[in-house]
């Protein structure tokens, strides 16, 4: 029997699928249009397409990256949601953090958005614990029952429960769940002590409510998909691990960055194999662009992320998302300026060139108009309505009072700057120099603007993997099973025996989860970490903690790592200053079940000769060498015909199934050992000796004009 593993990444426009035959090592990729009304349809279409004659019985495992939970949050659809909290804390969601989002310098201009649960759907229950989990006032069972019946009588079925200090002792929340099971058995309940056993009440409350909001939708989707697939499967999590579908329905919030996380991990493996352990990853899709930073082979993690306007303190790969995809709509602001995104035409109706009823010009239409993508997609499976794109761009240009070429080029320039701003957010704002990192560009639209991004950001190079549109799906097959567990314990004097007891409890939770996933104990891997800060600071720095016995040497090693990390991040530390005590805040354990990653095949060298174009097309480049026309007759190359060591010089267009790389004048693309195209700015030719200017001429003006 064959043993085939399949990764399926459902995006806003396309569903990407990769299959790996673990006997032969063969990797097969394909794409199919997404079906936003019912994502399971596109999922199954992709699975059938990639199997190509094989049976589902030949499939040994399926891993899924899904946007179901993310889309519900981004579209603000948390319907029928209720909140139960401690008496006296009914307005915790209204008070929040009393902070104004970035971009609003003065709160006068900011309108507070609606809370995830309106005040009239918040109920409080008597009972109180202190910060150590000791009971101050007993749980009020009668009040709890009245709250449960109130939600039952109004048909509110998704409920989040967050009691004060339940991270230290979940007993009151467990009793509330028992009351709800008795009084309101139809309710879907999320407890904060299950979702996020960590302090900071506002973030813990919202994270719990987000979990409750998406839980009914995810349960229906997983059940539907399980019925259609007829076999168990796994789902990608935001933290860079996977979890079985049977388990993920109990913690659906962990899937909110499912697809983008897989892309960052797949790109990290591809880059490291190619000799680039630290890179920026750029995943350009139909709806958005996701960027992340990989340092020494590992994507950066955060617990300070958010989805839409909702803070989510679950561990997740640190990803910045902007509405700059192929389907991003070009529009004119009330002031008369051209804007691009964040609104997207998506998969349905899609860009004008899809011919499915779209009425607005998109980034893809601009590429089509300028000849930078072929007149069909997916190897001819999706013909494009070039005339519709041309007419749409022309109409938009007329409204702007510009020429159509300038309008289309302007759309792409704005999109490139939107992407570059996202990259700066995740590098410059975090103290990293973007010029130190090559970039891995993938996703269907990821390679389209790489030449412009090299110039805008000063990137040393851009790596475009083979089959860039399927890197996220490939990444799904490289991911270990991973679960994260956390316990808040705030103290300036952490005793080793206390730390050992907390870590042992967290390790036990991780072990039981890996047992349920089918991993034998000898394959379990446990990674410890701790969050620390200098006393008086508001936020923590996370550092890895060593394994082995938890004793004074272990404690000293963690403290030493904290001082080093703080110095590296902020430029100062208080290692030898007794006036600044270190405060321990959280202890963490991640349980990892390792899998066998697919091997990335090598690309053979060319046996003599040079790559031969398969055709040519008129392409507009708005950065031609001096004296060259912007419309150029440009050679076209097939990506699958390139061999290791081949070097192409722009202008050229490199086409493949699922993606296109326009190589601008002045750039080169070299195929490396594993078939990646490494794009760089071509070396400038040595300057010619300046000619003597005519008598009386302005030499400065002549020099400027010659390079214009």
TrEMBL record:
Q: Which residues form a coiled coil?
A: none
For region Disordered, the annotated ranges are: 684-708
Domain called Hydantoinase/oxoprolinase N-terminal: residue spans? 5-183
**Which residue stretches does the UniProt record annotate as biased composition, category Pro residues?**
684-693
| Keywords assigned | Hydrolase
Which residues does the UniProt record annotate as the domain Acetophenone carboxylase-like C-terminal?
Answer: 501-675
Q: Which SUPFAM superfamilies match?
A: Actin-like ATPase domain (SSF53067)
Tell me which Pfam families the record gives. Answer: Hydant_A_C, Hydant_A_N, Hydantoinase_A
Domain Hydantoinase A/oxoprolinase, residue spans: 204-484
What GO molecular function annotation could you give as one example from this UniProt entry? 5-oxoprolinase (ATP-hydrolyzing) activity
Q: GO terms for CC?
A: cytosol
Q: Is Hydrolase one of the keywords UniProt gives this record?
A: yes
For the biological process aspect of GO, one term held by this record is:
glutathione metabolic process
Q: Which domain of life is it from?
A: Bacteria
EC id: 3.5.2.14
**InterPro entries referenced in this protein's UniProt entry, alphabetically:** ACX-like_C, ATPase_NBD, Hydant_A_N, Hydantoinase_A, Oxoprolinase-like
The protein depicted here goes by the name N-methylhydantoinase A
Q: Which organism is it from?
A: Sphaerisporangium siamense
